[in-house]
Amino acid sequence: MRAACWMGSTSVEVRDVPEPRILNPRDAIVRITSTAICGSDLHLYDGYMPTMEKGDILGHEFMGEVVEVGPGAASTISVGDRVVVPFTISCGACLACTRGLYSLCENSNPNAAMAEKAFGFPTAGIFGYSHLTGGYAGGQAEYARVPFADVGLLKVGPDLSDEQVLFLSDILPTGYMGAEMCDIEPGDIVAVWGAGPVGQFAMASALLLGAERVIAIDRFDYRLEMAAVRTGAEVIDYEHVDVNEALKELTGGRGPDACIDAVGMEAHHGTGAIQAYDRVKQAARLETERPHALRQAITCCRNGGVVSIIGVYGGFADKFPIGSLMNRSLTIRAGQCHVQRYMRPLLEHIEAGRLDPTFVITHRLGLEEAPGAYETFKHKQDGCMKVVLTPGA
Amino acid sequence: MRARSAITVNDRPDAVYSAWRDFECLPRFMDHLESVSVTGHRRSHWVAHGPVGTTVEWDAEITEDVPGERISWRSLEGASVENAGWVHFRPAPGDQGTEVHLELEYSPPGGALGSVVAKLFGEEPNQQVSDDLRRFKQILETGEIARSDGSPLGSRNRNQVHQHDAHPSPDDDQPRTTAGSGPEVRS
Ligand SMILES: NC(=O)c1ccc[n+]([C@@H]2O[C@H](COP(=O)([O-])OP(=O)(O)OC[C@H]3O[C@@H](n4cnc5c(N)ncnc54)[C@H](O)[C@@H]3O)[C@@H](O)[C@H]2O)c1
Ligand SMILES: [Zn+2]
Ligand SMILES: [Zn+2]
Question: Which of A6, A140, A175, A381 is 20 to 30 Å from the Cα of A375, by its Cα?
Answer without folding.
Answer: A175
